[in-house]
Design a protein that fits this description.
Radius of gyration: 25 Å
Order of helices and strands: HHEEE
Shape: rod-shaped
Strand order of the largest sheet: 1-2-3
Structural class: alpha+beta
Largest sheet: 3 strands, antiparallel
Helix content: 40-55%
Number of helices: 2
Number of strands: 3
């Protein structure tokens, strides 16, 4: 004979377990989107810096590289700032972007709020002359 104290226990536990599963699933999806966004910013930032450095780091080369960077990232992320720094030997790029948020308010999770990356690349100058 069953004890009467256990009737309806499943009706109470089921909604809470579904809610907890949904919350963990949303967090996992948000982290995956953030990792993807970080990968996109890293790859395009590195390539834009390489392009600018290969073209000598001139203001025109920096403008072309920045235009290329913005077109590749597109509307999927908000780019908060792009800052170029050039020296006679190095071209550097600082990018701060805000990844998309999916259903979650990530203001409490400081690591998911923005993506900050710095890229440095040595300038490539064409030197023609005898090999040796």
């Amino acid at each position: 004979m069953r004890s009467r104290g256990e009737d309806g226990v499943g009706l109470v536990a089921l909604p809470w377990s579904v809610l907890a599963f949904g919350a963990f699933l949303m967090l996992a999806v948000q982290v995956a989107v953030h990792l993807y966004a970080t990968s996109i910013v890293t790859a395009t930032g590195h390539e834009a810096t390489r392009r600018a450095a290969f073209d000598g780091g001139s203001p025109a080369a920096l403008a072309d590289a920045e235009r290329w960077l913005r077109s590749r990232i597109g509307s999927s992320m908000d780019i908060e700032s792009i800052r170029w720094t050039t020296t006679p030997d190095v071209v550097a790029l600082d990018v701060v972007a805000r990844p998309p948020n999916l259903l979650l308010d990530t203001t409490a999770l400081s690591s998911l709020r923005s993506i900050e990356r710095r890229f440095e690349m040595r300038r490539e100058l064409a030197r023609f002359g005898p090999a040796g």
